[in-house]
Amino acid sequence: MKLPMSLAIMGAFIPMSILGAWPHFDIKKLELNYNDPIGHGRADSLVWEKDVSVQENKKFEVERRGRSFYLKTFDEEFVWDDLPAKIEEAKSIKAQGIQLTTDQNKKLNLTIAHLDLKGEKENLFIQALSGHCLKNRKFLSANEALLDACLTNTQLIFKKIFFSENKIAFIHSFFAGVFPQITTLGQTTILEKGQFKIVKGKLKGEFDFRGDLNVGVRLWGHSQYNSVEKTIIVRLDKVKASFLNITKKVFAELEKNESETFIVQRPFIYIKLKDQIK
Question: 250 — phi, psi (to 5°)?
């Protein structure tokens, strides 16, 4: 909950050191079955910046060596050094219908039909997710261009997202703090029927929380990227669970996780990225 849901999901699969003023992705109909350190898959197209360029319908094998992925087709081999965080930490990945593309209109598109990712600290399951971000301003850094785009004009829809936290149940404990009706602190959180939309920085979102308590959550606010301070700024105006206003409870839980880089000053949330973004 430290980032707008749309940005958090996009950021999980996109690294923080992309070259160029706007990224070049062309991943279509990607399927992957991976059990650390090896796996196999296929894709109609698999282009990731300058690191990987697999054209046409090709099968491939992958192997993780340290912090790098080696991807082999029958006639080519690529080294993927800059892995997205979730991919680098994964112990197993099963994916179907993955598409990540950028077009000439400076639009980033993401589609996930099915993703089951298991790691040491947490598991993540996504079903039927689609989203996009529209480029807003010009930057020398593609990282900042993506951040600015996804905080200014973005849309995200999903059928189901399932979190299972093995060691630190942050997400579940966050919801348990907001909803005192949750009496058993498990380690799983299910979000369903999610819709998040940001238009010119104006944020609106809704999703169903499933667990010990089933409740519909809606939120309103604003988001922006301050390029001078390298800071994400979110103004959270209102959060409702069914007909109840839970904004104060949400801020109370967020304040428990304050740090030097995550600052809560109601109604604003500041996330400082100076040492993370290039």
Answer: -60, -45
Token pair, residue 156, equals 């995200």
**pTM attached to this predicted model:** 0.84
Could you tell me which residue, 46 or 245, shows the higher pLDDT? 245
- According to the model, what pLDDT value does residue 6 have? 53
- What mean pLDDT do residues 33-45 have? 94
**Average pLDDT over all residues of the chain:** 84
Q: CA–CA separation, 53 vs 64, rounded Å? A: 18
Termini Cα distance of the chain: 24
Q: Using an 8 Å Cβ cutoff, are 154 and 198 in contact?
A: yes
Is 206 in contact with 242 (CB distance < 8 Å)? no
Comparing CA positions, the residue from 205, 268, 264 lying closest to residue 240 is 205
Could you give the 3-state DSSP secondary structure of residue 54? strand
Supply 260's token pair.
């030097």
Q: Where are the beta strands (DSSP E) in 13-55?
A: 25-35, 38-43, 45-48, 52-54
Among 86, 69, 87, smallest CA distance to 78 is for: 69
